[in-house]
Amino acid sequence: MNRAHARRAPLILIAALLCAAVSSTLLHAQSSVFGDTTPRFLDVDQAFSFYTSLDSQNQVSVHWTIAPEYYLYADKFSMRAITADGNSTELPLQLPEGVEHFDEFFGEVTVYYHQLRIILPVSDIETPFTLEIDFQGCAEAGLCYPPTTRQTEIFR
């Protein structure tokens, strides 16, 4: 490389970096000025978080926190107790009254917003057991999450 090229190389590098910084700034400014109208959706576990509590020897509760502008379907819940020997028992759900809602995917449905507590009778289940929870929900902005399954261990 001759001396003229050697002197220009750092200038070319600085110019390239400056162009990249300016174009990145302009792109960010354009999305800020015109507003980014693309909806941003939460991960399913952020939109619908839960924890369990052992209320008594005979009852477990699943406590849901539902993000603002999201909802869970009442008819999409199912819960099973899976014991150490692999036996699975469908648990009856005690659901509170929900809200009637017209859903673009399922029509007239009952849904839950904000918070929800589901009570599960477990008197006939040996512990420890795995509680398998199936649920489904949507965002008001139009995203319907696929049916989701989560598991948690229950000990007495």
TrEMBL record:
Keyword terms of this UniProt record: Signal
Signal peptide (from-to): 1-29
Top-level division of the source organism's lineage: Bacteria
Keyword ATP-binding: no
Gene Ontology terms, MF aspect: protein-disulfide reductase activity
InterPro entries from the UniProt entry: DsbDN, DsbDN_sf
Protein's UniProt keywords contain Repeat: no
Database matches in Gene3D superfamilies: Thiol:disulfide interchange protein DsbD, N-terminal domain (2.60.40.1250)
Domain Thiol:disulfide interchange protein DsbD N-terminal: 39-154
Pfam families per record: DsbD_N
Family matches, as SUPFAM superfamilies: Thiol:disulfide interchange protein DsbD, N-terminal domain (DsbD-alpha) (SSF74863)
Single biological process term from Gene Ontology: cell redox homeostasis
Name of the protein this chain belongs to: Thiol:disulfide interchange protein DsbD N-terminal domain-containing protein
